[in-house]
Write a structure and sequence with these properties.
Blueprint: E1 5-11, H1 15-27, E2 32-35, H2 38-47, E3 49-56, E4 58-59, E5 62-63, H3 64-74, E6 79-84, H4 89-98, E7 102-105, H5 110-117, H6 135-149, H7 154-161, H8 165-173
Parallel strand pairs: 1-2, 1-3, 3-6, 6-7
Antiparallel strand pairs: 4-5
Helix pairs in contact: 2-3, 3-4, 6-7, 7-8
Length: 179
């Protein structure tokens, strides 16, 4: 492993997003390396020591959740934030259990990403600040959970949920509901 410590490892299969993140981080004085898949990320961590990593949930055929576990094994002090456009409670919980320090939904600006690496201070939940989750969001998260349990198999997920496969496909094509 190199003696050089690199600030950020960016792992995303979208080259435009990865390059944009790297440019913004460079402007703020951080050093970065980009990997487009799990194999490239693991190769980079074998050669270089990183302090932080931004990992996408879906990396082509690979899963960012599996990659997080491997990164933690290789570099235990690595702080990892998962960034995804396919957010759900089940994947957020799985990411944190795997070793991520935070989980963010795309689009997230650079200030949000940097804040996600900060101290884990949370403001206490008060009755005034609590907003119940919408039924649409709850449905989206349940579908994502069942889909994950079925290994991404849409037909099996549709059977478990008791809906037609095409209906499920239409629901999955929509962006997740915010709240």
């Amino acid at each position: 492993m190199n003696e050089t410590l690199i600030d950020f490892l960016i792992v995303d299969d979208d080259p435009t997003l990865a390059e944009m993140l790297a440019r913004v981080l460079h402007r703020r004085g951080f050093t970065c390396r980009i990997a487009s898949d799990s194999a490239q990320a693991l190769q980079l961590t074998g050669d270089t020591l990183f302090s932080k990593a931004i990992v996408d949930l879906k990396l082509g055929k690979d899963s960012g959740l599996v990659l997080i576990k491997e990164l933690v094994i290789r570099q235990p002090k690595l702080a990892i934030v998962m960034l995804t456009g396919y957010s759900s409670i089940s994947t957020a919980v799985e990411a944190v259990k795997s070793g991520a320090v935070n989980y963010l939904c795309k689009p997230a600006d650079i200030d949000d990403i940097l804040a996600a690496f900060g101290s884990h201070n949370t403001t206490p939940l008060t009755a005034e600040s609590y907003t119940p989750i919408s039924v649409d969001r709850l449905e989206w998260e349940h579908i994502q959970k069942v889909l994950q349990e079925q290994g991404g198999n849409i037909s099996a997920t549709a059977r478990v949920l008791g809906m037609h496969r095409r209906t499920l496909q239409r629901k999955l094509q929509k962006r997740p509901v915010k709240q």
